[in-house]
Amino acid sequence: MSFTNLLPLIVVLILVLGIVVAILVTSSQHHRRPGATTIPSVVSTLPSSRSVEATCSVRMVVLVDNYRYRRDLEIAWGLAIYVETPWSRILFDTGPNPRVLTENARRLGIDLSKIDAIVVSHAHGDHYGGLKAFAALRRGIPVYIPFNEPWLERYVEELGLEPVVVNQTMEIARGIYVTKPLYGPPWEISLAINTSKGFVVLVGCSHPGVAKIVQLVKETLGGKIYAVLGGMHLAGAPEDVVEAIASKLIELGVEKVYPIHCSGDEIRNVLKNRYPEHYGDGGAGLEIVLELPAELCKHSSSRVSISMAS
What we know:
Layout: H1 3-30, E1 43-44, H2 52-55, E2 57-64, E3 80-85, E4 88-92, H3 98-108, E5 117-119, H4 125-128, H5 134-137, E6 142-146, H6 150-158, E7 162-166, E8 170-173, E9 176-178, E10 182-183, E11 187-188, E12 191-195, E13 198-203, H7 210-221, E14 225-231, H8 239-251, E15 256-260, H9 265-274, E16 287-291
Parallel strand pairs: 1-16, 4-5, 5-6, 6-7, 13-14, 14-15
Antiparallel strand pairs: 2-3, 2-16, 3-4, 8-9, 9-12, 10-11, 12-13
């Protein structure tokens, strides 16, 4: 058969191949999550391949949130943030249930059995619900809770864990502080981590007010507040209220604001559009790595005991 006779067949095959490719591309786009973009899993001042021990840094990972930052993680209404330094591993809040917490930890390569302490910001189920996982993983682990919550204290004890009632700001590990409870309602505690850029404040729901919590950290611990990460209880708040709070945080010297969990979309939009240099996107899978202050790193290789004082 001559090439001239084969030419129509070749043309038909090329056309069919083009149609198949077009269908495959369209199908891939159709099944992509709306609005999803490829985003990094690490927001870091250090190369992600370097360990916290080698760099004397703190690693903060959002394990549970109702916003998704990494596509391969599950989401649920609640909050859990893993904090690791060369000398301590702390879990701030536990999400609403053990399943999402443990599954996301597994996917992120975080061993929950090595957690040294847990901080429960306040007595709402979407923040303490994952505690049940530790009844099997780490019995006897200290769990810091705000005072005036006797039923939560009993619940922690029933799980075989060790409740530590917080009534004042205290250092629970080198450079890591639990704040004095503030009333929302309910009573709420936060976590403040000293870094080379200033304090990073982790907030559960900010029922007492996120600006009030930041102000407390400034007054009790001194120094600069570099970032705030967590729930800010602004979902459904009027635009003028949200704008005033965003402005107040910046006035207090906060450089980065990561509004997740109950923060709502309005605060995200206000920061993104009016203060883009201060806005930090976030959700389940967000990882932030920051260097620790030089004075904390002199003996960084040695693990230290978690403080149980209250």
